[in-house]
Design a protein that fits this description.
Elements lengths: L1 E3 L1 H8 L3 H8 L3 H8 L8 H11 L3 H4 E3 L2 E10 L5 E2 L5 E2 L3 E11 L2 E13 L3 E7 H7 L4 H22 L11 E6 L1 H14 L3 H6 L1
Parallel strand pairs: 8-9
Antiparallel strand pairs: 1-2, 3-6, 4-5, 6-7, 7-8
Helix pairs in contact: 2-3
Length: 204
């Protein structure tokens, strides 16, 4: 995965996209796409103009890391969020258990957490133990955000499509939280035990 560091470089120098556009002649749309890492590529003359203005090398303008996210296990709760005949939403505190593998260069970080829908549909949280946060902080922020985006996108799609919830949710309502290790471990254990096949899931 390749990421452009333009946003960081501009912030360090106190330069905004409009000013850079004026000084380089590059379009604001091009610079904004690079700043937000939404562009599909970059021309050599564009890269040359940016590097000259910021006095950086292409290696400083771009970062590379071998990043991957693999959802190795999801276990939806047997009881689902649903709208009752009287119109009231029946909310489920935890809708699913997630086990996620994060690959960063040659290391693997395994995240185990729960999809908290206690405040559905206004706010949905994916909660992991705080020890996972310490491991993830070794990954540069620009790549860490991609990992969080992938997890959030998976959760949104699973809730909206697989669970068939009465009110669709968006990425804006999703957030990832890191909570006390013992608390999360106990909540995960209780979640598995609440399932019909809880003991099998817990010890397999």
């Amino acid at each position: 995965m390749i990421k452009c560091n333009l946003a960081v470089l501009l912030a360090e120098r106190g330069i905004n996209v409009s000013e850079m556009s004026e000084r380089t002649g590059l379009s604001r749309n091009t610079l904004s796409a690079l700043q937000n890492n939404t562009g599909k590529g970059i021309q050599f003359d564009t890269m040359d103009a940016i590097c000259k203005l910021l006095d950086v090398t292409p290696c400083q303008l771009f970062s590379y890391a071998d990043i991957g996210v693999n959802f190795i296990f999801t276990n939806p709760y047997k009881k689902k969020i649903e709208r009752m005949p009287n119109g009231v939403l029946n909310i489920v505190q935890y809708s699913s258990y997630y086990e996620v593998e994060v690959f960063y260069n040659e290391s693997v970080i395994t995240l185990k957490g729960l999809l908290n829908t206690d405040h559905y549909p206004d706010r949905i949280q994916i909660i992991f133990p705080v020890k996972n946060k310490s491991s993830l902080e070794k990954i540069p922020l620009i790549f860490r955000q991609e990992i969080f985006n992938a997890i959030n996108e998976f959760a949104v799609n699973e809730l909206n499509n697989s669970y068939d919830v009465p009110v669709k949710i968006t990425k804006n309502s999703m957030e990832i939280k890191f909570l006390d290790d013992q608390f999360i471990e106990q909540e995960i254990m209780d979640f598995h035990l609440s399932q019909d096949d809880g003991l099998d899931n817990l010890f397999n």
